[in-house]
Specification:
The complex is a heterodimer of chains A (about 130) and B (about 550). Chain A is an alpha/beta fold. Helices cover about 45% and strands about 20% of the residues of chain A. Classes of the chains: A alpha/beta (about 130), B alpha/beta (about 550).
């Protein structure tokens, strides 16, 4: 049996809007992944620490407060610093179009906006985890 | 509804209709779905008739507008006397930026102010706190000091305008800043009108902008009730909010139930402090969501008024009719806005605003079409405000009181929602009350379950969302971006530095020390000490740090 994909779902910064993060966590779990939900008000340091401790394949970051440009790239930077740059980082939330390319350039593998089908998100995690394993 | 004299006769006619006309029609054209449901997945029957209201007293359930149980509205003439307050929730960047937005909205006809604060402010952090990194002014305005508050209301007379402030955990501090600002302008506190949201229970349940643990927070809330009743008598010291509960995923019934359960919890805490219910109940106000399902939403507002009136009069023994009234603000459902084809959000917002008006709300915020992307730009906000003005002045819905009262469907829905709320009250009671339900994660889990179910329904196309899972177009949406300027952030940081440098250090220290002592002594009201601290130019973060040290910080049960 293949190893279960392990995903950390986290809310960086102060944003309290956790509806999306929780729905995603549940959809990933229902798709057979191991989900670690770290809850609200996590600093990028907290998130990276938890990701390494939990040996995850991917991190899903959710932010609706507008602080994504500061917080998402910081997570990628810290992962690289901790030699865990192979962990896939994905973002979601209220993110203006023009920020998406900047985030991708900063190493966020994909950014999902409002209205994205759960199926697309789940299969992206599956594919990236597969690619990572190869 | 009174029973029609020929009820049995009518029933016979209805059965005949079912056996003939209806049967033929279904044969010729089957219905589009096997089951029809509301936005909250509540089953809807094909037809509602007088039989649905059989055995129910019109007087008991509806009464007349402005009278118990207020199902038909809180005022005898409703919008014929005065339209609802058009109150647009606004805030971004610095106090300066938002002051400009306020003046823009006033110039375009809004009739009340509503402040949106940024995340650091909502959590009681100053802009220069390490926790605030990246969050300055992104989803509201940063107000770290009395000086910021003064800038926010520059050229706006606090003695004339009513101001609503959407802030909870540090609501007491922000309120103190507003009072301090008015004081320095020479406006007596007795003249101030407005609302602080100050509803901490729904923060634990849904919005998640808490600081201290529940019991300490509830004590602080009651401090504001007590202080307000005595010193700022025209101020609503709380806005008990279902809005965020709904946004977090709850159904209409859950929104209704959890909000009113929270409301009753505040009343209990106030009375346990020894306050007389009629001294503080008239200043309790509410805030509900206006979502997509027109009739279900209208029913929710009507059920809310009826339940509240009954509970206040019969359970809590309030004598003043004013204490029985559920006065409410409404906001269209932010969560319903789509990033796809954003312009069509204007239509959604119109339907939702209509629900709030037909539901009898006292004030209303309409969302802007670009809010699935950002804090709205000026044009988007203006359209949102114009939506209310069209409903008020062109649609004719404000011309008569409770125009849908008596609708078989609406009245049946109102009763159903009421029953659902009471079932939840019982379950919350079984958990040991609202705070115990929060600690055990019951309310949060109920909300998360509904959110997930809703998303699944969209996923499998049981539910159509126009532009998202049907009627999709392949185009890049055009939304004019709104950015918070670097200069605003720099200005804010410099101002904080200047305040810390120039204030009277001894006075500042003494005020914070007096506040600490007040926090440590449960029998001392903290509000006067918070006001002193703010007058001594203590910042929001400094005041909240004192309180964090005394009360500790809440950690929520993790679930999804």
């Amino acid at each position: 049996m293949p190893k279960k994909i392990r995903v950390l779902v986290a809310k960086p910064g102060l944003d309290g809007h956790d509806r999306g993060a929780k729905v995603i966590a549940r959809a990933l779990r229902d798709a057979g992944m191991e989900v670690i939900y770290t809850g609200l008000r996590q600093t990028p340091e907290d998130i990276v620490e938890a990701a390494i401790q939990e040996d995850v394949d991917a991190i899903g970051l959710s932010c609706l407060s507008g602080a994504h440009m500061t917080l998402f790239p910081e997570v990628v930077k810290l992962l690289k610093k901790r030699k865990a740059g192979d962990i896939v980082v994905v973002g979601g939330g209220i993110i203006p179009e023009e920020d998406i390319s900047k985030l991708k350039k900063a190493g966020i593998k994909n950014v999902f906006g409002p209205g994205t089908p759960l199926h697309d998100i789940v299969s992206f995690f599956q594919k990236s985890a597969q690619a990572k394993g190869e | 509804m009174s029973e029609p004299e020929d009820s049995a006769e009518y029933e016979a006619r209805l059965r005949k209709w079912e056996a003939t006309s209806l049967k033929d029609a279904l044969k010729a054209l089957p219905e589009r779905r096997k089951e029809f449901v509301t936005t909250s997945s509540r089953p809807v029957k094909r037809l509602y008739t007088p039989l649905d209201l059989r055995g129910k007293s019109h007087d008991e359930r509806l009464g007349n507008p402005g009278e118990f149980p207020f199902t038909r509205g809180v005022h005898p003439t409703m919008y014929r006397g005065r339209l609802w307050t058009m109150r647009m929730f606004a805030g971004y960047g610095s106090a300066d930026d938002t002051n400009r937005r306020f003046k823009y909205l006033i110039a375009h006809g809004e009739t009340g102010l509503s402040v949106a604060f940024d995340m650091p402010t909502l959590y009681g952090y100053d802009t220069d706190a390490p926790e605030a990194k990246g969050e300055f002014g992104t989803c509201g305005v940063a107000v770290s000091s009395l000086e910021d508050m003064e800038i926010l209301f520059r050229d706006i007379d606090p003695g004339q305008v009513s101001t609503s402030m959407t802030i909870n955990a540090p609501a007491d501090v922000t309120w103190a800043m507003y009072l301090g600002m008015a004081e320095r302008r020479g406006v007596p506190l007795t003249q101030l009108r407005g609302t602080i949201q100050n509803d901490i229970l729904k923060e634990y349940e849904a919005q998640k902008e808490w600081i201290y643990p529940p019991e300490a927070s509830m004590r602080l809330v009651v401090d504001t009730f007590q202080f307000g009743a005595k010193s700022v008598p025209q101020w609503n010291t709380i806005s008990i909010s279902g809005y965020h509960i709904r946004e977090a995923g709850a159904t209409a019934g859950q929104e209704l139930a959890f909000t009113l359960a929270n409301g009753m919890e505040y009343v209990r805490w106030g009375m346990n402090r020894g306050l007389k219910v009629d001294d503080f109940a008239p200043r309790l106000s509410f805030f509900f969501n206006a979502h997509n399902d027109l009739f279900e939403e209208i029913a929710k507002y009507r059920a809310a008024r009826r339940i509240w009136a009954r509970e206040m009069r019969d359970t809590f023994g309030a004598k003043k009719p004013r204490s029985w009234l559920l006065r409410t603000h409404a906001q269209t459902a932010g969560v319903s806005l789509t990033a796809q084809q954003p312009e069509i959000n204007i239509v959604r917002t119109t339907v939702q605003a209509l629900a709030a008006i037909l539901g009898g709300a006292q004030s209303l915020h309409t969302n802007s079409y670009d809010e699935a992307y950002q804090v709205p730009n000026e044009k988007a906000v203006r359209i949102a405000l114009r939506t209310q003005q069209i409903l008020a002045h062109e649609s004719g819905v404000a011309n008569t009181v409770d125009p849908l009262g008596g609708s078989y469907y609406l009245e049946a829905l109102t009763d159903e929602l009421e029953e659902e709320a009471y079932r939840y009250f019982d379950r919350i009671q079984e958990f040991g009350g609202v705070i115990a339900s929060i600690r055990k994660g019951f309310i949060q889990q109920e909300i998360a379950n509904s959110a997930y179910r809703y998303q699944r329904e969209i996923e499998v196309k049981e539910r159509t969302i126009v532009g998202v899972n049907d009627f999709v177009v392949d185009e890049q949406p055009e939304v004019e971006p709104l950015r918070v300027s670097e200069a605003s952030l720099r200005g804010q940081l410099e101002r904080l530095k200047r305040i810390r440098r120039s204030r009277d250090k001894t006075k500042w220290e003494r005020a914070l020390d007096a506040l600490r002592k007040a926090c440590e002594d449960e029998d001392t009201n903290t509000m006067p000490r918070i006001l002193d601290a703010v007058r001594a130019r203590a910042t929001l973060g400094e005041v909240c740090d004192v309180m964090r040290r005394v009360f500790g910080v809440w950690e929520e049960p993790l679930l999804y």
